[in-house]
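Because discrete structure vocabularies remain unfamiliar, we reproduce here a specimen of the format, pairing a chain with its fold in token form:
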Amino acid sequence: MKRLYSKCVRMVLLFLWLTGATAAMAQERVVSGTVRDESGSAMPGVNVIVSGTSNGTVTDTNGKYSISVGSGARLLFSFIGFSSQEVEVGSNTVLDITLKVDVTELSEIVVTGYTTERKADIIGSVAVVNSKDLLAAPVPNLSQQLQGRASGVIASGSGTPGEGAKIRIRGFTSFGNSDPLYVIDGVPTKDASRVNPNDIESVQVLKDATSASIYGARAANGVIIVTTKQGKSGTMKVDYDGYAGPAWIPKSYYPDLINTSEYRDYLSRQYDPAATPIFSHPLFGTAGSFSVPDFYVVSNGIKAGFPAGAPQVNPSLYFLPKNDYSTFYLINKTSAGTNWFDAITRSAVTQNHQITASGGSDKSTYSVGLNYFNQDGVYKYSGYERFAVRMNTSFKPNQYFKLGENFQFIRESFQNATGGGARGEASAWAQSFRMVPYIPVNDIGGGWGGNGIGDSGNGTNPLAQLYRDKDDQRINFKVTGNVFAEVNPLKDLAIRTSFGLEYGNYFTKDYVLRTYERSENTQTASLNQSFSYSLAWTWTNTAAYTKTFGDHTVKALVGTEAIKAGIIDGVNASSFAGFDFEDPIFMSLNTAINQGVTTSPYREPYRTLFSTFGRIDYGFKDKYLFNATVRRDEGSVFGAANRVGTFPAFGVGWRLSEEGFMKGIDFISDFKLRGGWGQMGNQDRVNPLDQTATFRFNPGLSNYDITRSQSTLAVGYTAFNSSTDRAKWETVESVNVGFDASVNGGWDVNFNVFSNKTKGLLVNQPRAVLGGLLRTPQVNLGDMTNNGFEFTVIKRGKIIPGLDYDASVNFTHYKNVADNIDGNELSFISGSASRLSNVWRTQAGHPISSFYGYQLDGFFKNQADLDALTMDGKRIGSWRYKDLNGDGVINTDDQTFIGNPQPKFVMGFNLGFRYKNFDLSSFILWNYGNDLFNYTKYWTEMRVFRGGISKRVLYDGYNPATQTGTLPYLGRIDGPSADDGYSDFIRSSVSDFYLESGSYLRGKNITLGYTLNSAVASKLKLQRARIYAQAINYFTITKYSGPDPDIGIQGGDLFMGLDDSAFPNPKQIMFGLSLTF
């Protein structure tokens, strides 16, 4: 009975267990799906866990998963570098998930010198730039993309097609070349154009010695580390990114110049009809009765204006010979006038197409990128074109060994890169305000209009110039890359060797065609060609050891590096003998009428650098941090006694947020104090020939008649290069103190205070009076300091459910001052513009490249003013300069520092929103506190040459009756009543008249995008599809009267801030498409 009872109990229990299990099984079900990133790519290795349980799985190589869940379950998806996402399963059996990048977490791993570090462990000053932010600027060069994107980085660039921006990190560290070092996949270079921006995966900017001194001799100006896209294991993924759209120059950029009838009035104000002899203009007639004719004729026998219907303007007389411009007859329509800026500009199209294929397995990965970029210049007949190919592969046959390569091939061509398409006095922009308004673009026969009539200046028809230069080319072919191998003989030890190559092949072709329409014509056509190549290689070997034991973490790195750079060979070839056919199709060096071709081969001496370096990082409890770096460089450009430079650095960090006394402060999730000191070097200005005195053979300079027979010349040589072995390394001593903080609510703050002091600045040794053309070497003659602070603030969050935002502000302030020039407070380095002397002065106690000249002090208004001050060319209505020393005489003793081209601060604002499938982002740049030298005023308001004249000259000159005006009195320049307020002294002197505020606030870009939902994309056989529209340079707020204020630090480091008619940055609208297959 007992047995029967026991058996019944067991049967009941078994029944209850089976019933419960069946019910539980009935409640559980299988949920499956695919996990992708924001680009639509499948994500292998994603953790998928049922929240609150240990039940979990991971996605396969195609991003797919399958997991059993019960009712009411929630799934948690997580992956390193992405924001975790928890989703309620509900009644779904298929659940596809898109994980978003966690920017904060991604920035935890930062590429630094020869290695990587966690952001939490970084003690130095390192800025991480998001590659997506870089691509928001549709430009072909990384240096342009960096403008305003990172604190401590100052950039300035023009709109010249294909041209990069000038980059300075925390001010200026040298008198000659403060360009940063770019390290592209481990290959050092000074050329930012060696990487296609579309291929960039990450960018880190090393700004202080603690982070950058491991690069030693090349780190003084900062280091920008660029890592290109690498392949990942998984099936092949193909991405296409493309955009296209127009660019144009707004009419508000044009100078406000007088038209044809106003030019007649301008002449009437200058010439006295009572003067003897009376002034006569070949077009407008005689003083007192100036008029605007309908046409003017230019030929050998006629240069005059005529009314419509005159026999001289009969079209049948028109004659322009093809091959002989000595006899011609041109008829030009005059009265309509010409806006030369409209004539030379156009709406130009920019387009970019990028295809990237990537994939791999657990043994190998690959990433291949193809790019085509074309930028038509807003100047007619100008442009830039680039083809780029990138190949990155890696192979890992086992856990101990890895090898791979990273190579980039770029071919770029510039149309009209010289002459009219360039910058400066000869540029098309400058010639547009040097041309008088009454000259037409074309004569009635379709030829070029010009100033051959006389008394119309010597400017060049800028459209004719652009057209004649349309076949001028500069073609560059560049190869940059490396091959590497890594061995891990021990778990914590990695040994790596890398051999990098930087090759360049450069070709230039420059046609100079004959002209017929100018007052100063080119009589003989010519062709100039040049070809050169450059080669540099870098061999780097490192051993890195990482060990964690208990609360201690130690990382050690040692290495050697050998560099050979500056291997340059080339040849210049020219033919000035003329051509039968002045069409570039038929013009080559061997088709000249006279086969004489001048060739000039050349070779530049190379430089070598051998370095050993080491670094150690130590952390205790992830709370107390220390690192030390030392690099020893031996450079061939210095004399034997000074070749070795040793550059140490150290840093300390304290993560206060890990201390017990911070635990109660819940709103601060991370807070780290850090500081560092170190030294970095620079040798870029030193020529390898500086150690050796050289002589050259030149028949015109060195041959002489030794026998006095006047029939035989003896060969002689002249001194060309003086030498010295005393030059030493420029050394930058860097101090940086700062903190990093993360605050609950999505706030991240980075703050730095810095001081960089350059000792032993390299400058050309002053030449002795009797030195003649002797080239002098570089010597150490100065010191300089840059002090400042910078910060970056980032905020992320939600406004309402589904509406996310991210915002950031970066701010940079620095103050530059020259501490010493040749040990004498009165010593200085000066610089001149093409027509004005001593525009700049660099002197102890002042910023480098400061503007120097006279200060305006109103006008001479009456005789008492004239009697009170001695000044050349003074008269009532002319400017008066300040008598700074009070001696009653205006001379060079009254010149002073009048402006600074360096900004007081630069700020960048980023703001982005995401709502469902829409995204909106914008970037605004604020540059404040610098002065610009508006050189255009010299041509348009100083009345130095015949040409375009500012309306201010006619309407805002000094009025003796009201004693008002901003420019000198526009009066008679001839006759008994000559009273013009413009004197030769005023025209030739530098004053603060030319200076204007260079501050500006510019909307750099704003982008609206839409990403198709996955269901629609899937029907189109796509993983992801996004379309977007973008406006670039969509607004600018500035007081600067020139076309573009973004010229602050352009020019040489000692000659900045001059508006030399560079290509203005155009406005653009772009439409883009991104697809993932």
Q: What stands out?
A: Residues 27-101 form a domain with the Immunoglobulin-like fold (CATH 2.60.40.1120). Residues 11-26, 103-107 have pLDDT under 50 and may be disordered. The longest strand covers residues 526-549. The CA atoms of residues 151 and 400 lie 40 Å apart.
